[in-house]
Give the backbone structure.
Amino acid sequence: MAQQQFNQQNIKKRTSTLVFLKGSTAPLVLYVEHPEALYAELNQLMKSQSAAVVEKETQGPLKKVCFIANQIAALALQEEQYV
């Protein structure tokens, strides 16, 4: 019981921005300081359909990522728990 309480107190949440690219089966999972702001920025670029190059530094396993904005098929915000 004490161990279960301890684990529940140490559970944290983080949000990542998922970028689904055309022709790709798995999304890019981007961990950044402000995921909602990145989502809004990419959403605007997706609407414009410009061929702009997007390059971002991230805090997760992917340290730097680059893709073409008009190749974005979908975006999502994902909340996950971790200890």
